C-alpha cells in the first residue's frame, strides 16, 4: 500500500499538537493533583519530548518473512497439459513479508509483544530497534483470539515500556500512539481516549480502547502510552473505508496485554478457563417469558457435570447476570468475561432463579476438552474428530450442536462436504446438543447418515453413504 504525505495533513498534525500542549498547560493544576508529571522544557514550555525520549527506544520494528504456495491454474493439474506445454511439476512459492511494530515489555529477557496478524504468515522474524540495531527473533507464542504475539531477541541495552501502576484510564485522557506507519519509523501521533470497552467488532475477545490518535497500516503492534510514558495499550486496528486513519483507532488494553503476554511466556499459549455452562441469549420472547429485559443476562441451558457452575449449584433455567466485575448482556459478554479471567481465579457470580437474585462464588478451572473419534459415533464419520461446544466457541449460545474439530481430506466425510469448524446440529431427524446426544441419535448399523450442519451462519444438510 502506498501513501502520499500532504501539506494540509502536516498542518493538521501541528494544530492537533498545539491543542494538546495548550490543553496540557491549561490543566496544570488538575494534572498535578492526579499525579501526572507535566512535561516541561527548560524554558517552561509544555512538551511531550521528555517523555518520548524515555519511551521511543521501547518501540521497535517487527518484520516477518515467509513463503506461501502460489495458486496454480487448474489446467496445471492435467498431466497432458503439463507435458505438452512443458509446465513445471513442482508447486511454485513466493516470498511474503509483513512489517509492523512491537513493544519491548521485558528488557532483561528481550520479550517483545506485537500483533498476531503481523507474524502469522512468517517463518522468520527480525526486530529492528530505534538505534538501527537488528536482531533475529524467536516466536514464543501467539493468541489469535486477542491478536497478540510475543517474540524474543537476544540483545543488551534494551529499554522496556512499563505497564501502568493502576488501571485508571478514563475517556478523555490524553494518549500518544507510537509505531511505524507506512514504514515511517518511530512515528508519534497524539489524541485522547474516545471510548473504553469497545466490542462487537468481530475480532475474538474484545475490550478495546478507542482513540482518535492517528493509527495507520504499520502501526499494528505499536504502543499507546499515557502522559506518564506507561503502556496503556497495543495498537491493533482502525475503522476506515480508505485504509488510512479517520480518527477511529483501537488498541488492546494493558490489562489484557499483560495477562496474555504472561500466559504466552509461561506456556507458549493461552489456556482460557471454563465455567461449565452452555447458555443462550435472552431474546425478546425468552425475556418476556422470564419477566426480564432482553439482553439482560445469559440463560443457562445445560450444566457440565463436575464443573464450577455445577459445584456452585447452578441449574438449567437460571439467568447469569454478572461474573466478577463484568455485567453480562449475552453469551458473547460471558465469553469475553471468561477470556479475561484465569484458571484458578475465584469470582462472584450473580444469577436469577425464579425471579430471585442469588450470589455464588465460583473457582474457574482449565477446560476439559473431550474429543471423540467420529468412527466411534458412526463408521461413515471415520477420519473426523468431534467435540462438545464450550462457552468459548464464537457461536456458543447462538447455535446448538457438536463441533467438527478435524476432517481428514481423504475421508468420506470430507468428500461429502463436511469441514472443520462445522457445527452438527441434527442427526437424521433428531436435534443434538452434545456428544452424548449424538451417540444416542446415530445408528451405527445404518448405511446412510444425514447431518444438518451450520456453517458461516447458514444451515445445510449433508448425506454420507
UniProtKB/TrEMBL annotation:
Residues the record marks as active site: 117 (charge relay system), 147 (charge relay system), 220 (charge relay system)
One GO term (biological process): protein quality control for misfolded or incompletely synthesized proteins
Matches recorded under Pfam families: PDZ_2 (PF13180), PDZ_6 (PF17820), Trypsin_2 (PF13365)
MF (Gene Ontology): serine-type endopeptidase activity
Compartments (UniProt record): Periplasm
GO cellular-component term (any): periplasmic space
Signal peptide per UniProt: 1-34
Listed SUPFAM superfamilies: PDZ domain-like, Trypsin-like serine proteases
Alphabetically ordered keywords of this record: Hydrolase, Periplasm, Protease, Repeat, Serine protease, Signal
Limits of the PDZ domain: 267-355
PANTHER family for this protein: SERINE PROTEASE FAMILY S1C HTRA-RELATED (PTHR22939), SERINE PROTEASE HTRA2, MITOCHONDRIAL (PTHR22939:SF129)
Family from the record: Belongs to the peptidase S1C family.
Protein's name in the database: Serine endoprotease DegQ
Source species: Abyssibacter profundi
